[in-house]
User: What shape does this take?
Amino acid sequence: MFRNGFGVLAAVAALALAAPAQAGVLDNVQVKIGASAILPEEGAEISVIGGDVSISDETVPSLQIEYFFNDNVSMELLCCVAEHDVRAVGTALGTVDLGQVTHFPPTLTLKYRWTDFGRFEPYVGAGVNWTRFIDDEPPAGGPATGIDYDDSFGGALQAGFDYRLNEHWALNLDVRKIWINSDVTIDAGGTIIDADVDIDPVVVSGGLAYRF
Assistant: This one.
């Protein structure tokens, strides 16, 4: 999955870099391509069987697109697709494998950066996240015969820095805290189990940036 996703993002970045910057279309735009570690700080309230939830950490390719309103203020969109292993733990049925869930969690933040430290440009940001769950099939043969995750809308905080290599290129390191909550419905052979699931990941991103 990582290799396939990275290939798609590399193609997008290559197309962006090949665009005619002199035409002004990409003025004030910065593109970052790299990888993001998604580290859930999960918790859940589960009806009927009780217990909690365990969601795996994952590292995925990611793309960030930033637009500068001026040297200090910008807006940035983080895009990636992640697949996590999910289990219900400590339930009346013991540990229940809920299979894998794939989600698309674009996050938009308004950022302020400091530009008086030479090549080092630290920044902070705040914004919103929308998470779309796009594949949520439970494993075959388990007690869960169907599962559904509602989409999520929540807040996001961000801090990081660009280290400028020259006028166009930079190295980037970024940390976000994103609040993701989903109402989950599990069909266990005709018994409906409801769960209020907090995913709330810390997302650590690193990569290479190009400013037009």
